[in-house]
User: What shape does this take?
Amino acid sequence: MILTWFIIILITGGLLARIAEHWNSWIPKWIALLVSLMALVLATSLWILNYDVLQISHSAWLITYILPWIPQFGISFHLALDGLSLLMLILTYFLGTLAILTSWKEIKYKVGFFYLNILWVLAGITGVFLAMDLFLFYFFWEVMLIPMFFLIAIWGHENRRYAAYKFFIFTQASGLLMLLAILGLYFIHGSSTDIYTFDYFQLLGTTLSTSTGRWLMLGFLSAFIVKLPAVPFHSWLPDAHSEAPTAGSLILAGLLLKTGAYGLIRFVIPLFPDASAELAPWMMTLGVIGILYGAMLAFAQTDLKRLVAYTSVSHMGFILLGVFAFNTLAMQGVVMQMITHGISTGALFILAGSVYERIHTRDIMKMGGFWSKAPYMATIGLIFAMASLGLPGLGNFVAEFLTLVGSWQAAPLLTILATTGLVAATAYSLRIVQKVFLGIHQPGLILPDLSYRERLMLVPMVIVILWLGVFPKAVLKTSEKACVEAEQAVTHNLTSRVMEDKPIKESSIHQKGGTHE
Amino acid sequence: MKEVPLDYGLLLAGILFVLGLISVLIRRNIIFMLISVEIMLNAAGLAFIVAGSRWQQAEGQVMFIFILTMAAAEVSVGLALILQIYHQIKTLDSDAANKMKE
Amino acid sequence: MKELLWLIPILPFAGALILIVVGTKLSNSKVAVVGAGSVGLSALITILIGIDSLSSSSYKGFDQVLWTWIDVESFKPAIAFHLDALSLIFIFVITFVGFLIHIYSTEFMAQDEGFARFFAYLNLFVGSMLILVLADNLLLMYLGWEGVGLCSYLLIGFWYQEEKNGYAARKAFIVTRVGDTAMAIGLFMLFQIFNTLNIQEIAIQAPQAWDVGSPVAIMIALLLLGGAVGKSAQLPLQTWLPDAMAGPSPVSALIHAATMVTAGVYLIARTHIIFELAPVAQVMVGVIGALTLLLAGFSALTQYDLKRVLAYSTISQIGYMFLALGVGAWSAAIFHFVIHAFFKALLFLGAGAVIMLLHHEHDMFKMGGLRTKLPVIYWTFLIGSASLAAIPVVTAGFYSKDQILWLAWAGEKGNIWFFLAALMGAFITSVYTFRMVFVTFFGHEKTRVGHTPGKSMTIPLVILAVLATVGGFIELPHTFGHFTLFSNFLTPVLSSTEIKSGAESSEWIVQIVAAIVSLSGVYLAYFFYVKRPELPDKIKSFIPSLYRLWHSGWGFDALYNFILVKPFVFLAEINKRDVIDQIYGALVSIVNGFNLVLTFTQSGMIRWYIMGIVLGAIVILTIGLLV
Assistant: This one.
C-alpha cells in the first residue's frame, strides 16, 4: 500500500497546489515542497529500513501490491518495488525537491498550475518505476509525458512551442510503437496459454518465435531509446532541454531519460532475452556512436543549456553500452550512471539556470571570469564539470569505469572507442569551465554569488556526488539483485540453450515474492 | 393517352440537369446559383417521375415529393445564408465569399 | 607508528577542505598555517614511519585497508594503502619537498588575492599524489593519477584572468588524459585476466600467467606505458609541459618537476614485473626515454624563457629515468628521481624568485648580472645547476646520472646506443644548464632588482641546495666508496640490475668519460656566453630553420594541431547544428510542403469546389461504366 501512497500524495499535492493558487501565490510552492519532501523522506526511510533485508532476502522484490483494475482484460493495478526501483524513487524525489526549489523565484506565472505539473510528472515517473503491469506501465508512461509538455510549452524560453511539440511527437510516436508491442505480447501470450494478462511476471516466460520476438522487442526498444536518447533519435533532447524552464530541464535530464534506461533493464532484456542478445552488438555500437557524437556536438555548442544537453546524449551512450554488455559489472555501472548523471547534469542545469537568472543569456561567449565575482558558483561548477568528465572520486567515475570494465569483457573494440570518449568529455567539460568561469570578467555583467537557497540546493548535490564517488557500495549493494536478475535473463538463456540445444525460456521466469500487503 | 418514351424523358431530365450544372458553375451571383441548383433538383425529380411512370410504380412520385420538400427546405436555408452573406460582404458575388479560406 | 599511515594523505585533504570551505574568510597567516602545516605534519609522520621501517631490518611492506571502495562480484578494489620501500621514498620526497615548497609559497604568493585558493589546490595536489603512490590497487592509483591531473590543471590555470593560461591548463589536462585513457584500457585488460587490480596480487600472478614475451603482457605494458608517457611528458605526449609553465613557479617546482611528472616513472617501477615479462615494451620505454632526453635537450638549448629551459630540462631528465627503467636499472631510476626532485625543485624555486624579483620578467636575456645582487639565489641556483649538469664528485646529480650511464652501457639490457644517447644528453644538459647560469647571473645588469627575498624563500632554497649536494652520498659507485644504502633499501621491492659479464672493470672509464663530457659542456657554455657572446647569434643566423624547429619543441605542437585539433574542431564546427537534427527538420519541411500544396486547393471559391465535385463524379461514373 505504501507504494500507492507515493502516487496518491503527489497527485493530491498537485491538486492542492492548483487550488491554493486562488488565495495566494506562495502557498502552492510550500505545498509542493512539503509534498516532495514527504515523498523523499518516505522513500529514504524505506531504503534505510530495508537495506539489510535486501541483502538477505532471496527475492529481489521488496514490496508488491496488486489490485484488480479491469479484470476482463487481465489488467491489474500491480506495483512492485525492488532495489533498482527504490534507488530510482529516491533519485526522483531528491531531484523533484530540487526542481521545486530551483523554480522558487523563476516561475511567476500560473504558479499553482506549474507545481501541479511538476508533482504530476513526479507521480508519473513514480508509476513508471513501480508498475509491474504493462498496461499500467504504458498508462504512467503517458501520464509522465503530458505535464512535461505543459512545463515546456507554458514556462519555457523563446522557442518553447517548437521544442514542446518536438518532444511530444518523438516520445508519443515511439510510445505508440511500444503500445503495439505490448498488445502483441498480450495476444501472443494469451493465445498460447489462454491466460490473457498484462502482468509482467506472467508475461516473462512467453515463448516467442525469433522474428516475432525481434519485432516486439523493437517496439519496446523504440520507446526506450528515444527517451534515453540514443543517437539517431536524440534530436528532441537539445531543444527540449534548452527551451524548458530550469526545473523542466532538471526533471528531463535527471529523471525522464532514466525511465528509458530503466525500461531497457526492466522490460526489454528480461522479456526478450533472445532478441536482446541478437541485437546487442548493434545497440552497443549505437551507444558508442552516441558517446562520441554527443561529445563532439557538445564541444561545438555556445548555448550553455544546449551544451549540457548534448553531454547527456554522450553520457547516455554509456548506458546503452553497459546494458547490452550483459554482465553484472556493466549493469551496475549503468545503475550508477543513471543516478550520478541525474545529479551531475541536474546540477549543471541548475547552475545554467542561475546564470540565466542573473545575466539573461545562455550564450557562453558572453560569459567569462565568473570566478572572481562568484567563487562559490565557480567552485561548484568546477566540481560538476569534473564529474561530467569522469574524475575519480566523484560518482560518475565509478559508473563509467564499471560500465567500461564490464563492456570490455563483451566488446573490447567498442570499449576502446568508448574510452576515447573520456578525452572528448574532457574537452567539452573544460570548455565550460574555461568559457564561463575563467578568463576576464565582463565589466557590464552584474553577478551576485549563489544565494542561500541556491547553496541549499547545490551543496547537498556536491555531498551526494562525492559520497557516491567514495562510498558507492551502499548503492551497488542495493541494486545488486535487480542487476543480477536482468543480466541472468540473458546469460542463463544463452548458456542453457548451448547446453541443451533447444530454445528455453523457463529459466528466465522470475519468482514472485516479497511481502504482499 | 400515349406514353412519353422513357428515353425522351430521361434525355430531357439529363439536359435540364446539365444546364443547371453549367449555370451553377458559370454564374457568380449566388441567387442565380441557388436557382440553378433548383433546376438540377427538378431535373432529378423529373427523372424519378419518368421512371415511376415507366414501371407503373408510386415510388417515383413519392421521391419527387421528397425532393420538393427538400428543395423547399434547402431554399429557405439557402436564402437565409444568402441574406447573411449579403449582409456581411455587401455583394452577391460568390467568389468574393472566400473569407473562410484561412 | 605505521598505523598512522592513513593520516599522511588525509591531512593534506583535510587542509584543502578547510581552505576551500572557509579559506576566503581566513587571514593569510592562518591560511599558511593550515596549508603548510598539514603538509608539514604529513612530512613529520612520513619521517617517523621511515625511521621506524629503516630500523626494522627485514622490511617487507605494510598494508592498511580503510574500506572497500567498489564491490561488484569479484571487482572489489579497496581504499587501501601499501607501504614499502618504493612508496616510502616517494612519499618522503612528496611530503618533504612539498613542505619546503609550501613554505616558499607563503612568501611567493603573499601578494596574490587567491592566496587561500592556491594553498587549497596545492594541498589537494599533495593529497592526491600521496594517494597515487600509496595505493595498493591500480584503480585507487588511477584516482590519485587523475586527481593530480586536476590539480595540475587548476594550478597551471591559477591566474585564470589570462586566457592563455587557461588554454595551457586545458592542453595539459587533455594531453595527459589521452595517456590516461590508454592506461584505463590497460586496467580493463588486467582486471579481465587477473580478476583483481591489486598490484601485489598481480605481481604474484603475472609470472605464472604469462611467459616472457607473451603478447598480452606486451599489450598491457604498452598501454600502461601510454599512461606513463602522458603524465611524465615523454615522447609523443610531451607537448603540454612547456606550456604548463604558465602556472606560478612553486607549482612548476612541485608538480611539473619534483613529483607529478615522475608519476609515470613510479607507475613503471611499480608494475615492473609486467614490464620484465614484456621485453619489447621495456625496450620501448628505453627508446622513448633516449629519444625524449635528446629532443628535449636540443629544445632547451634554444629557449629564452628561463622557466621553459627548465621545463625542457625536466622532460629530458625524466627521459633519463625512462632510459634507466628501460634497461632494468630500477633503483637507478628511482635514485635519479629523488636527486632530480631536489635539484629541479631548487632550480624552479630559484628561477621563480628571480622572475618575481625582476617584476615578472621571464626572458633570461633581459636578466644578467644577478650574481652580486642576489647572492643567496645565485649560489643555490649554481649548486642546483651543477647537480643538473652532473659536475663530477661534488654533486648528487653526478652519482645518480652516472649510475644510469653506467647501466645503460653495462646493464644486461643496455646497449651502446642507449649509452651514446645518454652521453650526448649529458653533454647537452651541461651546455644548456650553464648557458642559463651564465646568461642570467653573469654579465651586466639589464633589469633592476625589486627587493631581496625573505627568509621563507631562502631557507627552502638552502635546504634543497644541501640535499642536492649531499643527497648523492647515500649511493656511491663501485669504483669509490661502494656505498649502496639506497639500492639496498629498495632491493626487496625492485630487483637489482644484472650486469653484463666482463663489463665490471670498465666502470671507471664510463665515469671519466661522463665527467669530461659534462665539464666540456660547461666550458662550451662559458666560451659561447661569457667569452664570445656574439657567437651564438651568428650560429643562429646560420641555421635558422633548425633553430626554429628546436625552439618550437620539434614542431610537435603544430603537428598535433594539424592532424588532431584542427580536424576535430572543424568537424565539430560544421556539425554544430547537428546533421541528424537537420534530417528530421527536412522531414518536417516535406510534410509542410505537402500541406502547402493541399491548402492551395482550398481557394474559398465555391464554384471551384462544385467543379471539383462534378469532375470527381464524372471520373467515378466513368470508372463505374468501364469496369
